[in-house]
């Protein structure tokens, strides 16, 4: 996201929250801080969240049309999306999908200056991504397994491999952060 990308904001007002509009305005500010050009917003009042798309399926169709009309490549949801909702939306809309948490992590990543702060943001980002990995392997997980894979598909093996790599990287980064913290304490004691 180095150059300004066009983005549509999406908000679901669950049970008529009184702070909904303020929350959407804040989301627009966060998107601006992330160098996104907000070109519109799609809102929906809901009694309960749709398990597949968070918003209703009809609103998802409306969102797709709005994205094409606005020539927007990014969709930013005001709400936290589950891994399956994220995967369903990416598949349906064919765009970059972010929720509020992902947007905030991106802002922190852009503004982190010290080695320690960059490592902290990377750990947070990886912990956020880890449960969402499954959605990114949908097409592979539907494939039948090949020689030596028993009943597991190619996507399942790749998913487990990537999950282990991410968990190992999180552990390594946390060790590095501990070391930085210890060095900082030693420097303080010397003062």
Domain tally: 2
CATH superfamily of the largest domain: GTPase HflX, N-terminal domain
Q: Rounded to an integer, what's the Rg over CA atoms?
A: 20 Å
Report how far the terminal alpha carbons are from each other: 42 Å
Oligomer: single chain
CATH class of the largest domain: Alpha Beta
Strand order of the largest sheet: 2-1-3-4
Question: Given the C-alpha coordinates, what overall shape results?
Answer: globular
Strand content: 15-25%
Mean pLDDT: 88
Number of strands: 4
H/E element order: EHEHEHEHHHH
Largest sheet: 4 strands, parallel
Structure description:
This protein is of the alpha/beta class and about 190 residues long. The chain has two domains: about 100 residues, 3-Layer(aba) Sandwich (Rossmann fold); about 80 residues. Helix content is about 55%, strand content about 15%. A four-stranded parallel sheet has the order 2-1-3-4, sandwiched between helices. Helix 3 links the parallel strand 3 and strand 4. About 5% of the residues have low confidence.
């Amino acid at each position: 996201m180095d150059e300004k990308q066009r983005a549509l904001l999406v908000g679901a007002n669950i049970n008529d929250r009184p702070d909904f509009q303020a929350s959407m305005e804040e989301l627009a500010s966060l998107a601006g801080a992330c160098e996104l050009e907000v070109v519109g917003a799609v809102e929906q009042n809901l009694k309960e969240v749709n398990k597949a798309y968070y918003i209703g399926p009809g609103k998802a169709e409306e969102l797709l049309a709005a994205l094409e009309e606005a020539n927007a490549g990014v969709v930013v949801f005001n709400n936290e999306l589950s891994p399956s909702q994220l995967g369903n939306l990416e598949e349906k809309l064919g765009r970059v999908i972010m929720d509020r948490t992902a947007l905030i992590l991106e802002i922190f990543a852009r503004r982190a200056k010290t080695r320690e702060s960059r490592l902290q943001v990377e750990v947070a980002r990886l912990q956020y991504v880890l449960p969402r990995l499954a959605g990114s392997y949908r097409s592979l997980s539907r494939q039948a397994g090949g020689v030596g894979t028993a009943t597991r598909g190619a996507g399942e093996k790749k998913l487990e491999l990537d999950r282990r790599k991410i968990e190992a990287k999180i552990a390594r980064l946390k060790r590095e952060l501990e070391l930085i913290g210890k060095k900082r304490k030693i420097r303080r004691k010397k003062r």
